[in-house]
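re the bet — no i am not wrong, look at it urself. input seq straight from the record:
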Amino acid sequence: MENDKYALLKAEVQEIIDFIAAKNAKEANNKLVDVSEQLDDLLDTSDDDEDLVELSKYQVLLNQLYQKIVALNGQAQ
C-alpha cells in the first residue's frame, strides 16, 4: 500500500511536469490542485514520521511546480 500511494503521487506529479513542459498552464494548474488535495488528505491521515517526511518532500515539489506554472502564465500574457 505504501508503495502504491507514492507510485500514484509520482505519476501524477509527472503529469504536472509534462503539462508544464507542453506549456499547458491551465491543465498543469488543474492537476496540481487535484494532487494537492490528495496530498493534504494523506498528510491528515498519516501519523508515521517516515510518511510525513516523504509527503513533505512532495509538498515542496508541488510548491516549486506552482511557481513554474505562475511563471508560465506570465509568459503567456
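see?? The two ends are 43 Å apart (CA to CA). told u. also The mean pLDDT is 92. so pay up
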